[in-house]
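The protein record quoted for completeness.
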Amino acid sequence: MAASAPSEALLERLAATRRRSEELVAGLEPEDLGLQGMAEASPPKWHLGHTCWFFETFLLTPHLPGHGPADSRWGYLFNSYYDAIGERHPRPERGLLSRPTIGEVIAWRHRVDTGLTALLGQLSRRSAAESAPLLALLELGLQHEQQHQELLLMDLLDGFSRNPLEPVAFPGASGPESAYGTSRLAGPLRWLQGVAGLVEVGHQGAGFHFDNEAPRHRVWLEPHAIASRLVRNGEYASFIADGGYQRPELWLSEGWEAVERHRWQAPRYWRGSGPAEAWAWEFSLAGRRPLHPEAPVRHLSWFEADAYARWAGARLPSEAEWEAAFQQGVALEQAEGVLWQWTASPYRPYPGFRPAAGAVGEYNGKFMSSQMVLRGSSFLTPAGHGRSTYRNFFPPSSRWMAAGLRLARDSG
């Protein structure tokens, strides 16, 4: 039986997602596109090339007859971590890749877009059994591109923050900071009764999910309370004023080592120019802005979130506590679209987890070590990309992401 032709909605979403990546860099200068501020980040041009490589490697080259890579050498440059595919350029040296030029990368992207449209057009002539895995790969590629749209913005902010001129990535009210501003405030903190007992978490049913979100499984939760909103800048400033960054008893050993090694004194992008103006400013994609005391504190490492929670006489919620509260209607404010929220949970496989077959199985499973889970989504997350079972993850010392914290505490 022949498969049905791809829907117009899918074709439109493909075009819109691919176009959005290029829109994010449209206002940048050529010099900005190769900027890599640190080893953990990547230049905007690399993100554009890598997402193109993903579609070409996993969909077009093996499944679209006659399609070959634009340049066989580019696979080495834009492979991220897929060891099954082959060797790759060292991540810390991505900022050295002045070639291919941005013009060549954009031309490559448009060639891949044409190939994807052609491949989708052929699916109506293939069986449903043959087309289903290709459509699943296409969906994974779209979700992957949305991930990199968010990463591109976080990496760009890191790079711009290192320039003494403090350049503005998105001036005016049309940039990502406007989305943060419209949803950043919430009411007074209330302690809400969390979901206790035997609960089910993880993805089930129809709809896209990454492999690390499954299988759905049961978890026992002890009685606890969870904060109605995220921790604010003003509240975090009180932690700093009380010597939070000078009190080793508040920190895990590795976290305290990071404080001393990196000389952390405040969240990643807080700025101040003297005692009278200490931490009065915050660097953002819209440049330096006044630090709003009621806005949720952002760009914290897990170590900082954990130390603050200990100082506040609380703790971080587990990812199961967070997901159960969200799914069962506990009145969480700022749960989505504001900041990713650190949890107390290490990034580990769910019971019964099985990575996908082939090279795409390296997507999530190989990182289930030395990382902590974040839940929710941020103001940089593309619309429609987040969901309640989404498991974001970063090393506990990372703090260039749009991450904040929500408190929890045990209750008896």
Remarks:
- The mean pLDDT is 94.
- The CA atoms of residues 225 and 393 lie 24 Å apart.
- The chain is about 35% helix and 10% strand.
- The chain has two domains: 8-167, 177-410.
